[in-house]
Amino acid sequence: MIKLENISFDHCIKCTVCTIYCPVARATHHFPGPKQSGPDMERLRIKSPGLLDDSLKYCTNCKRCEIACPSNVKIADLIQSSKWRYFRKAFRVRDFFLARTDLMGGVATRASFLVNFFIKLFPVKFFLDRFMKIPSERRFPRYAQGTFRAWYKKHRKEQEAFAEKAVYFHGCYVNYNNHDLGKDVVTVLNAMNVGVIVTDEKCCGVPLIANGYIDKARKNALFNIESLARSASESGARIVSASSSCSFALKHEYPNLLELDNSAIFDGLDYITRFIHERFEKGNVPAMGPVPVRAAYHSPCHLERMGGVMNTIEVLKKIPGLELTILHSECCGIAGTYGFKKEYYKVAQKVGDELFKRIERANPEIVITDCETCKWQIEMSTPYRVEHPVTVLARAIDGKKL
Amino acid sequence: MRYDCVIIGGGLSGLTCGIRLAEKGARCAVISTGMSALHFSSGSIDLFGNEGEGKIVFRPFEYLEKFIGSNPLHPYARCGSSRVREALFYFRDQLDLEDIDLYNNDDANHFHVTTLGTLKPTFFSQRSVFNEKIRLAFEKKSKIAALNFEGYRDFYPELAVINLKRNVLFRNIEISSGKILYPDYGDPQRNPFEYRSIDIARIFDTERYLEDLAAQIRTAAGDAAFAAMPAFLGITNFKRHHQLLQQLTGLLIYEIPTLPPSILGMRIDNALKSRFAALGGVYIAGDTVRGGTIAGGRLESVFTENGGSSALYAGSFVLASGSFFSGGLVSEFSRVREPVFGLRVYSHAERSKWHAQEFFPRNGHPFLEFGVETDERFNPLTDDGQRLGNLYCTGALLPHYNPIREGSGGGVAVSTGYRAAELILAGNR
Amino acid sequence: MKRIETEAIVIGGGATGAGTLRDLSLRGVRAVLIEKSDIASGTTGRNHGLLHSGTRYAVNDLESARECIRENKILKKIARHCIEDTGGLFVTLPEDDPSYHGKLIEHCKYAGIRCEEVSVQEALRIEPNLNPNILAALRVPDGTIDPFRLTSANVLDAQERGATVLTHTGVSGIIREGDRAIGVRCRDRRTGVELEVFGGIIVNASGVWGQEICASAGIALRMFPSKGSMVIIDYRINNVVVNRCRVPSDGDIIVPGDTVSLIGTTSKKVEYDKIDEITVDEDEIATLLESGEKLIPNVSRTRVLRAYCGVRPLIAVSGEMDGREISRGIVLIDHERRDSVGGLITIAGGKLMTYRLMAEMAADLACAKLKVRKKCRTQKTALPGSERKLDQAKSVKFFTGIPNSVVGSTLYRHGQRIRNILHREKRNYGLICECEMVTEGEIEYALKKLNVKDIVDLRRRTRIGMGPCQGQLCAYRAAGLFVKYDSATSAESNKMLVDFLEERWKGIKPVLWGDALREVEFCYWIYQGLFGLGDVRFPEEGEDR
Ligand SMILES: Cc1cc2nc3c(=O)[nH]c(=O)nc-3n(C[C@H](O)[C@H](O)[C@H](O)COP(=O)(O)OP(=O)(O)OC[C@H]3O[C@@H](n4cnc5c(N)ncnc54)[C@H](O)[C@@H]3O)c2cc1C
Ligand SMILES: Cc1cc2nc3c(=O)[nH]c(=O)nc-3n(C[C@H](O)[C@H](O)[C@H](O)COP(=O)(O)OP(=O)(O)OC[C@H]3O[C@@H](n4cnc5c(N)ncnc54)[C@H](O)[C@@H]3O)c2cc1C
Ligand code: SF4
Ligand code: SF4
């Protein structure tokens, strides 16, 4: 029996527009597309859960269907919440590990050298492939030595000295895999006379949601809302995140999917380029040296959904010397942990194909994108290095080589 | 964020307006909830096709001259017929820059064949739908082959052929029908019986299937001089592939609109968005404007669903949010309202008067004529009677015209969008 | 003139007529059914499909209540695929008289209906969408019954046993020979062809129209028509039948049916000569939605798909009474005894869910007249498709490769006959109606086996066009398939497309606001703006041929 909270499917007028823009439906016909998997099937699933089709697992939650829908149907949310009902039955060790980025990161960063080494070895890959159903073609992001938080602790004092401050939600990736991005955020914000506050946080929940750990995701979400809100109100600061997926989760998945009240942080929370762009517009532009690089910018799906793409573009346009090509908006295919699963690997690569081709045609030196998983996917599938816009900004500011 | 102009609604009207403004150097943002009506339209731009009571308009501009006098509230009357002409040809030139050729029969309407084989008067059509060669072929009574993919559920040529044959123009034209098969295409799990036009368009967009398709079309068409096919001959590489197909088959290949999604409409949508972006316009998709701040008879800023409290400021605003279908108008149990600013709306008080008794009535459905009341400068009034001098309402949102009965949907969207841009530009000068 | 000779003639293809035809066929009697429109197009297709437990009648009409619970149990066995054993609740709202609750429990005991008191909390667990402010709740064995499938399955079984079915054929008069009725005159409404059918016994099962049939045989029989209106909402907002625990009144019940829910019903007297023109009134819709919202608050946020009404086929016993007070009792009339006209019997009144009993009574009498001494077997003989318990998991496994949703929906609609419909050929399971998961294979089956003459009939057999879009995409596809499967010419197909959309429009018109209006705007753009269907000229008969 279903309690009906998300009844947005009721507004669907069966116009078929969403089916055009779904990158997965384009890549594989195992997936019948957003219209059928979302609003059409929802009516049937309400009637009887037995009518649920497995095929909806193929949805990557990229939200492109929602952007296209003229009826404001929360198509992807409908699909995700049905996934939970399905996933609850099929627990998998792999999904558990992929979902627990904080747990895994906590362990791996203590011996990052070993983990990074082992995960490349053939027998390990074979094991992952055969028994964990993680495709051997897939490259893993490297784990870093120690955590970002540990680094930050040493710099807390100086950050707190700034008059204006921003609460920075760094996310698992910065904490465990890429400290440099976190440091770059500090560089950029400091250059704009903004201090960086780091407070207690848990994994934003994106991988948990994708793998059906909803209760855990809700728990994390409540924790984050409370912690960020407290920290922001204490320091009178805005909250920023430099991961488009974390920001999207904090801002939109919490209320829409997890059905939690996030009004305490909703208005104060920005994806970082919005925060920067707004200050740029008011004249707070730090001194920047030229970054003479040919770059192609890829806009991640979740940033598209938030409507934040133009902020990143406007900010990048301000960097002297940067030669920027804006790629046609396409999904890269990885969708967080999706591309790590053997059964979806091929689909993920096919989804990304269009983007990879476009990157090639743009012939850049580097690719810029806001999302860490897009970065992994593009670096694995093309020969190009991928950087975060904040990193490019930081190089313009500190003059180091990009 | 601050812009010169913020346009609410990224359909035919909003984008035409945005392109004109951006071209003149204005910093513009378009915000759109979702995809627009173009995704379903025939892809032909109707100007004025029917007088009503089944009488067809052959020369729309001439007709407008008299029509405007007796219908002063009609959006065309508020533009003026010479401005309507200016807007339409401007629109054609813009699409031309994006590689979409529109056909027009000088100042006269031409007829395109509908999915059910009736003829519909329209002003611009894509050249794959109508062109001089097709006209000549008709005049010469050349044989037509209506072709379709085996198992394509969204087009049934038989249903069209019977109606075409009843038309005097086609009386003596031989029409055959034929089937072609999907090329060996990708994943064997696919169920081709569930393909939509978009899936097939992607096949045509893929270079390597073209020869196979051409060979099949050639055979299926037999001795016909041209082949009529559902409009699914590609999107991204359409122009080149269409020419290639005609060369390879030696046939004239033309397209008939079919069930949504409309490939013909999407081509125009893509072209408009691409043109707008090329001129520096910002297109924010998937966000909805929820309201605005009004002070002293002016709209100062608007806020959106995703933006929360951070507002978008602009000197002028355009509301091109479409009709009920797109969410520009909202109907409730006993009233019709404009949801973003609560603007004054033209409608009927009694719900039973919103519609005609038959589904296919002689004179159309009244609800199609509802919309936001404006003055001759397309400025609306708020519910408490305040005129908003820097907000312009355009397109399907407007009242006092019936796009389906008149055959005027596209024309009104284009000319009012263009007109709003001109008024904004004039105001800034 | 065409002539058909048979043993028994049944007039009316509602549940009662179809049941009678099947009952006769099971007893080996050759029979012809004549229906002026389509199977289940009369009152049978215009109710809320409640498989009464009898609770609703327990206080006022004990006899009906007993009939209900008896038939309820039988139908759950013989018509499994037409029935959902959802269970039902009777809930007391704060404004309702609390004493009715106790009274109902007591009367259910007399009638032999299992009626169990449940806590408010438990009621909310059973039906989470229920108004949380209810004061008390009872659980009863209500269920739902799909009238279209039920009637169609009866007809199908009869046909497989040799019966003849003439749909779209109206009876224009009874042929009498002295004091006997010996046959009927009828006309095929689609071709205009006239024919006469002769038989030893005529069963008038034409529901509320029975008065006309009797009149044409010179017999006076007065019907007491009372209109009831209902609205259908977009999805299944409740999973158990929700009744309001009070003296029967307007807007008392919300019934889940397939993928939708129905709010019923009102009761208004209508003049007999207006029964073919009735429409749903504005105030009825307001009443139904207001009352519905009290039972399930989500009603106010949900799209209304359509509104429709039916006429209760009650035979006036005496005087003027409120429509609802009259017994729904079954009326079987032997016109030989009542009016001295031999060869004709009338069966009327009752309920959808007592159709089998009514059929048994009519067939018993008919057989007595025909001197056939066979016993009724319908209590025990399952309808085609209902032979075994429906096991979705098993079917899904059997049809691996076809989506669960398609297998499940087909099984739900056709029971075991799914094996005659689905197979693992892509054409077969390609979707035509995307809202209700109707495949090309199901349509082909319906066209060939289920007496489908146009898209409106097809809708009753398959649910095509019954979902939220009301036929926007599938109507055109269906019209194409009629031609593809040689069930109509292209010209006929065009015409039936118009007829179908006009038919759909009748039910949408009264609820045209909100998303329903958006849907209509879109649909009208497609069929008029894009297709020009309204401009298609339909030449007079024969002009084309
Ligand atoms: C099926 C169909 C077929 C048609 N065929 C033809 C044809 O053959 N020829 C012809 O000339 N015309 C045709 N038309 C009509 C024509 O396409 C429309 O009249 C025209 O496109 C309207 O353009 P518009 O820009 O005013 O509105 P729309 O195209 O409706 O665009 C409005 C946009 O505004 C967005 N929006 C709404 N509210 C908000 C908000 N609050 N915030 C942000 N965004 C918002 C919507 O998502 C939508 O994208 C057809 C229309 C349909 C539906
Ligand atoms: C609003 C309402 C709600 C109801 N709810 C329920 C409920 O929830 N549960 C329940 O069990 N019952 C319910 N009923 C009662 C139930 O619908 C009817 O009792 C039952 O459908 C009657 O079936 P029938 O076959 O006797 O009549 P009908 O279904 O009316 O069949 C008569 C048929 O005869 C045909 N006919 C008429 N004249 C001619 C002619 N001249 N020639 C050929 N054919 C002719 C008609 O077209 C029609 O198809 C409800 C009734 C109404 C009005
Ligand atoms: S979220 Fe992305 S993958 Fe999922 S249905 Fe929507 S468009 Fe397709
Ligand atoms: S785009 Fe929205 S309204 Fe259209 S079919 Fe998809 S969900 Fe429905």
In summary, what is this structure?
Chain B is of the alpha/beta class. Chain B has helices at 12-23, 60-70, 75-79, 81-97, 132-139, 157-166, 197-205, 210-221, 238-249, 263-278, 403-407, 409-428, and strands at 2-8, 28-32, 50-52, 55-56, 102-103, 110-113, 119-122, 125-126, 144-149, 175-180, 226-230, 252-256, 282-285, 289-295, 298-304, 312-319, 330-331, 336-337, 345-346, 371-372, 391-393.
Verbal overview:
The complex is a heterotrimer of chains A (402), B (429) and C (545). Among the domains of chain A are: 8-86, Fumarate Reductase Iron-sulfur Protein, Chain B, domain 2 (Orthogonal Bundle), CATH 1.10.1060; 287-398, 3-Layer(aba) Sandwich (Rossmann fold), CATH 3.40.50. Chain A has 22 helices and eight strands. Chain A has helices spanning 17-21, 23-27, 34-47, 64-68, 75-87, 93-99, 101-108, 112-118, 122-131, 148-160, 171-177, 179-191, 206-210, 214-235, 244-256, 263-266, 272-281, 301-306, 309-317, 342-362, 372-381, 389-398; strands spanning 164-169, 194-197, 238-241, 269-271, 294-298, 323-326, 366-369, 385-387. Chain B is an alpha/beta fold and 429 residues long. Chain B has two domains: 19-97 and 266-293 and 306-427, FAD/NAD(P)-binding domain (3-Layer(bba) Sandwich); 130-256, Rossmann fold (3-Layer(aba) Sandwich), CATH 3.40.50. Chain B has helices at 12-23, 60-70, 75-79, 81-97, 132-139, 157-166, 197-205, 210-221, 238-249, 263-278, 403-407, 409-428, and strands at residues 2-8, 28-32, 50-52, 55-56, 102-103, 110-113, 119-122, 125-126, 144-149, 175-180, 226-230, 252-256, 282-285, 289-295, 298-304, 312-319, 330-331, 336-337, 345-346, 371-372, 391-393. In chain B, strands 1, 2, 13, 14, 15, 16 and 21 form a seven-stranded mixed β-sheet that branches. A four-stranded parallel β-sheet of chain B has the order 10-9-11-12, sandwiched between helices. In chain B, strands 3-4 form a two-stranded antiparallel ribbon. The longest helix of chain B is centred in the C-terminal third of the chain and has 20 residues, at 409-428. Chain B is globular, with a radius of gyration of 22 Å. Chain C is of the alpha+beta class and 545 residues long. In chain C, strand 17 and strand 18 (260-264) form a beta hairpin. Helices cover 37% and strands 21% of the residues of chain C. The model of chain C is unreliable at 318-325 (pLDDT under 50). The two termini of chain C are 23 Å apart. Chain C is globular and about 65 Å long. Chains in contact: A-B, A-C, B-C.
